[in-house]
Specification:
Helix content: under 10%
Strand content: 25-35%
Distance between the termini: 14 Å
Strand order of the largest sheet: 3-4-5
Largest sheet: 3 strands, antiparallel
Order of helices and strands: EEEEEEE
Radius of gyration: 12 Å
Shape: globular
């Protein structure tokens, strides 16, 4: 799983590039773009919008989102 928080909003995706279903961090743990807006596949360079999971370059499919929420104690929960 990849979990990020931007301006208090949590975004969560399956850590698998839809191109070859390899983990985004297959070759490097640096998978967030320098501008903080994209998730990058380290295997072949595909780029995905960090807020939507939509493919921006290098693949045809989007990342698979995982529904999450934050409980009153501040825990991030899958649900």
């Amino acid at each position: 799983m990849i979990v990020t928080r931007i301006n208090g909003v949590i975004y969560c995706y399956v850590n698998a590039c839809p191109h070859q279903y390899l983990p985004l961090n297959y070759r490097s743990d640096s998978i967030i773009s320098s501008d903080g807006h994209r998730l990058l596949c380290s295997a072949h360079g595909a780029a995905f919008d960090i807020k939507t999971g939509n493919c921006l370059a290098g693949a045809f499919d989007n990342l698979d989102a995982i529904p999450v929420f934050e409980d009153p104690q501040g825990n991030v929960c899958i649900g």
